[in-house]
Amino acid sequence: MQMPKRLTILMLLAALSLPVSGCSLSTGRPFPVQKVRQIELNKTTKEEIRQMFGEPWRTGLDDGKRTWTYGEYSTTYTRDLKILFDDRNVVKSYSFSSSVPEDNNL
Length: 106
Description:
This protein has a single domain (25-105), classed as 2-Layer Sandwich (Beta-lactamase Inhibitory Protein, Chain:B, domain 1), CATH 3.30.1450.10. The protein has helices at 5-16, 46-53; strands at 26-28, 58-62, 65-74, 78-85, 91-98. 19% of the residues lie in helices and 32% in strands. It is elongated and about 60 Å long. The chain is built from two helices and five strands. By secondary structure, the chain is of the alpha+beta class.
């Protein structure tokens, strides 16, 4: 049995309105952003990063180098820390971005 077109459209509109109606969609997990300044290029190790921030939310590769990402992403704010390690498992580079005003001083 085929669903009437009008009912299909109403169901689609209801589903799309959920984020606007107070349901906050989010992904990632909180991490201690105040520790970002403790990261030292060419010195901080992968194990030290794990001790500071816990297990990464996401892992990957960037130009063949291992990356760890810590992030909180919601409809109201975002925080993102991406760390790139060299072949010795030492921080080669990192980037931190946030839409939270309190993080401007980091």
